[in-house]
Design goal:
The complex is a heterodimer of chains A (166) and B (422). The longest helix of chain A is centred in the N-terminal third of the chain and has 19 residues. Chain A has 166 residues and is of the alpha+beta class. Chain A is 23% helix and 42% strand. Chain A starts with 5 loop residues before the first helix and ends in a 13-residue tail after the last strand. With 422 residues, chain B is of the alpha+beta class. In chain B, the strands form four sheets. A seven-stranded antiparallel β-sheet of chain B has the order 2-11-10-5-4-3-6, with no helix packed on it. In chain B, strands 12-18-17-16-15-14-13 form a seven-stranded antiparallel β-sheet. A three-stranded antiparallel β-sheet of chain B has the order 7-8-9, with no helix packed on it. Classes of the chains: A alpha+beta (166), B alpha+beta (422). Chains A and B meet through strand 2 and helix 3 of A and strand 12, helix 8 and helix 9 of B.
Chain lengths: 166, 422
């Protein structure tokens, strides 16, 4: 483990936290602005003890992410709000490549809106998913950008699922 | 056929209020003037006593695909799952390479024997021997044929209990139709092939030409009656629910001409079609396929009461349901590709699969959401009384014969009329 100076850590922390804030607000455009258009890859993975293998539940590049955000309103979704809470565990910085590998704990809460009987359940909040963010982040002189985000889930039952990425 | 009053009600003779523009309470609850085959009383989704009866008359007698052979690829591998009626089962590949299934309950004190979702018996449990299924409670052990092979300190049982008399409850098991492991609780059931009949014949080339392998597993407890979720597998009038299907399928010439074929035992087959994935901006282009399936081809079979095979050009989805109660259903969904896939091919199949299905896929979320919300609206006392299944289009894709035929089989096995289930 090498020392990572505050001037490197600060933009990394800022990027990870902002990515959650923008997703929580469903500000997809702002979220995409944090991602590198050329190399960004977003995946959701988990290990399934049922089939004893790693599996992938979402796999999109920047273009596909943008397409997904653009067409999301045309789909019938559970529009309950998702709230992402992160705690950054580790930051490993490669000064030569100006890249950091960041591991964060992820907790997702769901506040019901219309995924069930809204007159009864809207407003209820419950834990929805837990896992890790495994991010690869590029730092330049004036900005930090997400090159990769893998959402590695521990939770393997997501109720009726969701169209919204974590 | 006469128009039904629910669509456009006749004006009431004595309106309760000048402001009433919808139907009155009496009109709302009146049984639609439809043949019994075209309407279902929602009580069959909400009555716990009917659910209990379903467990006995339907779920104890049908073949169900409980896992795929690739989930237990090696001798002594096991997979645990369950069947309706709170029946835990364990599927084991024996030292003779044969796959068997047992009720996963120890005959001694009825403890669960194998606890993990999957694994290998080669690794011994803390209190047992390798190659055996060991009940952790008192250390009774069973081999992969279900025989009891170890009872600690057996002498105290004298002749009252002996290993030969306390084997596991074995279930009828067959491996077929793409390597799925099928089980049936009925010891006297006919062969699986008799149950399936010709319903899977249209996709046999895709299923049987070469070995398949699982790459995706999803389960979830959905707050729905199993029949309501199965309706979304069974009928395609609800394609209007899916933006994806409207973009990729419904706009294609010939979509409305797809023939829907009902089969004996309540199964159904939707006619072959192709799908234009490039019309949906997040679906890309399908490059891979299955043996004998044209690129972008789609085949679909549902099997009464709760399983379905669905091939979307590069991916096979097999789903099965385990009803937990009249209002809760465990849905298990598997994605499969070809065992010989290169890593690149597999990655592509996974991408194709998760764009439509899986917890983040465009379509599955909509189906599950719809079934869950519908179940909330159908709850006992809500006022929901009738499900209409009255579309007739010459057995084409939007003909509700798909659900009528399902409930006809339900009626046959239950000895009840779904329109009047008293």
């Amino acid at each position: 483990m090498t020392y990572v100076p505050p001037e490197i850590l600060q933009p990394i922390h800022d990027l990870v936290h902002r990515s959650c804030l923008y997703m929580n607000d469903e500000s997809w455009k702002d979220y995409l602005a944090l991602c590198d258009p050329q190399s960004f890859r977003y995946r959701v993975t988990n290990y399934s003890p049922e089939i004893r293998r790693e599996q992938c539940w979402a796999d999109r590049d920047f273009k596909a992410m943008k397409a997904a955000f653009d067409i999301m309103p045309r789909h019938n979704s559970d529009r309950s709000k998702l709230t992402r809470q992160v705690s950054i565990y580790t930051v490993d910085y490669d000064a030569e490549a100006c890249e950091a590998n960041v591991v964060s704990a992820l907790t997702v809460y769901r506040t019901q809106l219309d995924g069930s009987m809204s007159y009864i359940e809207s407003g209820q909040t419950a834990l929805y998913a837990v896992g890790l963010y495994r991010d690869r982040i590029k730092l330049t002189d004036d900005e930090a950008r997400l090159l990769e985000r893998t959402v590695q889930l521990d939770t393997r039952q997501l109720d009726v699922g969701t169209h919204k990425p974590f | 056929m006469a128009c039904i009053p629910v669509a456009k009600p006749a004006p009431p003779k004595a309106s309760p209020s000048p402001e009433t523009t919808g139907r009155t309470g009496k009109q709302w609850t009146l049984k639609p003037k439809l043949p019994d085959s075209h309407v279902v009383n929602t009580r069959i989704y909400t009555d716990p006593s009917i659910f209990e009866e379903e467990l006995e008359k339907i779920w104890s007698r049908v073949w169900l695909p409980v896992c795929h052979e690739s989930e237990l690829p090696e001798r002594l591998d096991f997979r645990t799952t369950g069947l309706a009626g709170n029946k835990p089962i364990v599927v084991v590949r024996g030292e003779d390479n044969r796959i068997r299934a047992f009720l996963n309950i120890c005959p001694h004190r009825n403890n669960l024997i194998v606890r993990s979702p999957a694994g290998s018996l080669r690794k011994p449990e803390p209190s047992g021997n390798a190659n055996h299924m060991t009940c952790m409670y008192h250390g009774w052990q069973f081999d992969t044929t279900g025989q009891c092979v170890e009872i600690p300190r057996p002498a105290s049982y004298g002749e009252r209990v002996c290993k030969e008399g306390v084997g596991l409850r074995q279930l009828r098991t067959e491996v077929a139709y793409g390597g799925m492991v099928w089980v049936n609780l009925d010891d006297d059931c006919g062969p699986l092939a008799d149950f399936v009949g010709g319903a899977l014949d249209p996709m046999l080339e895709q299923l049987e030409t070469e070995p398949l392998e699982i790459f995706h597993y999803q389960k979830g407890i959905v707050r729905t009656n199993y029949k309501l979720f199965f309706d979304t597998s069974r009928e395609f009038y609800h394609d209007y629910l899916h933006f994806h299907n409207r973009q990729t399928s419904m706009v294609k010439p010939g979509y409305f001409d797809q023939q829907y074929t009902t089969h004996p035992n309540g199964h159904s087959v939707t006619g072959f079609t192709t799908v234009d994935y490039s019309s949906h901006s997040d679906s890309g282009t399908r490059l891979l396929t299955f043996p004998g399936l044209p690129r972008n081809g789609w085949r679909h079979t549902t099997l009464f009461p709760a399983s379905a095979y669905n091939i979307r050009t590069s991916c096979l989805r097999v789903n099965v349901m385990i009803p937990l109660s009249d209002r809760e259903t465990l849905v298990e969904i598997r994605g499969l590709g070809l065992k010989r896939d290169t890593p690149g091919e597999r990655e592509q199949r996974v991408k194709d699969y998760v764009s439509v299905w899986g917890p983040f896929g465009w379509n599955l979320h909509e189906d599950l959401l719809c079934a869950q919300v519908q179940t909330q609206a159908i709850k006992q006392g809500s006022g929901a009384t009738w499900n209409l299944m009255a579309r007739e289009e010459g057995n084409k894709v939007h003909d509700e014969v798909c659900v009528r035929s399902y409930y006809a089989e339900w009626a046959r096995l239950m000895g009840r009329n779904p329109a009047d289930p008293q």
